[in-house]
Amino acid sequence: MGDGPHHSIGEVLSLLKEEHPDVTISKIRFLESQGLIDPERTPSGYRKFYQGDIDRLRWILTQQRDNFLPLKVIKRRVAEEGFDPIAEIDERPGSLPLPEPSLFAEREVEPDLTDVVESSAEVPETADPSTTGSPSNDTPAGGFGSIELTAVALADASGADLGMVAELERMGLIEGNRTDDGTLFDHEALLVVKAALAFRASGMELRHLRMYKVAADREIGMLQQLRGAALTKGGSAAAGARDDLARLVAEGEAIHRSLVRRAFGLELDR
């Protein structure tokens, strides 16, 4: 990025203020400290922002403002090979395809930055050893983590190949639990791989399934704003928040189903 005209951090702030009135120098420095932007420095230590830096910063701020997306999600996306913020804005306005959503979030600490939400992974329940590698077709009573499958076992159980499993994990559509024995996947991963196989059999490429990840990340961001704080309190507050989230997720699924089926004239009670 060392070619062409550059701007100081104060000039960047002026350029972004109209579109992002809440942005501050402190916020820009914070995003730099998190590895989301990496402006060059002059020999005396002043930041030099080239157009590419500004485009990336504008895109990051838009994702935070419009989609409430966690920094981990944004950071993975901007680090992806070939990432182009201008192309992202042109092709998928306001979207972000990669991953690591969780309803268990924690806030990043910064004096004037109160709108950035970080996410941490949910810890799956310990599986019954007798069920390891033995999936069923129904959701287990124990919920997430009730079965544990290696990537090979997941491929065998679903009928997919290892390359497909790896690609779905890279896209964030499935997520494994890292253990001393390797990466293990739960029943949710099995359901997603089977669904992906069905889409592929109908002619859809795996990369097109990213739209479901984008939609899910947006929904997670919204629900996090509603109930995220209660989840971190524990006890009855967290239990109530979980109940609310289960209900809201189900209502969201009903809306999604209705919109898509109505578009094609399908019966809603199918």
Structure description:
The chain is mainly α and 270 residues long. Among the domains are: 9-96, Orthogonal Bundle (Multidrug-efflux Transporter Regulator, Chain: A, Domain 2), CATH 1.10.1660.10; 123-201, Orthogonal Bundle (Multidrug-efflux Transporter Regulator, Chain: A, Domain 2), CATH 1.10.1660. The protein is built from 10 helices and 6 strands; from the N terminus they run ααββαααββααββααα. The protein has helices spanning 9-17, 25-33, 51-67, 71-78, 85-91, 151-158, 162-171, 187-201, 210-231, 235-264, and strands spanning 40-41, 47-48, 105-107, 117-119, 177-179, 182-184. The strands form 3 sheets. Strands 1-2 form a two-stranded antiparallel ribbon. α6 (151-158) packs across α8. The termini are far apart.
Q: Key terms for this structure?
A:
single chain, 270 residues, mainly alpha, Multidrug-efflux Transporter Regulator, Chain: A, Domain 2, two-stranded antiparallel sheet, two-stranded antiparallel ribbon, 6 strands, 50% helix, globular
